[in-house]
């Protein structure tokens, strides 16, 4: 599966095969597991775009309906589910809609 970039080119939409490669290449990666029909996920889009623009974290999205194995592997049973990776390893999971400051603080706390 090829990597597809989202509308902004800053938030990257991935498939099962790509996730491991990208998070291993990023010191800090925040992944949102979402579905197309999820209203909260749609509202998170500008938040993720803002984080991608002015933090050093790699911001990724994965559609759980198209990438069920990966969603199961990371416990993404509800959408949205956020998983923070540090040096390729998952370190924190948040479920449900989050505000921008919460995600910024999460990235900052684990980046340092």
UniProtKB/TrEMBL annotation:
Pfam families: Thioredoxin (PF00085)
SUPFAM superfamilies linked to this entry: Thioredoxin-like
Keywords: Disulfide bond, Electron transport, Redox-active center, Transport
Gene3D superfamilies membership: Glutaredoxin
UniProt protein name: Thioredoxin family protein
Source superkingdom: Archaea
Disulfide partners: 38-41
Residue ranges annotated for the Thioredoxin domain, each copy included: 1-112
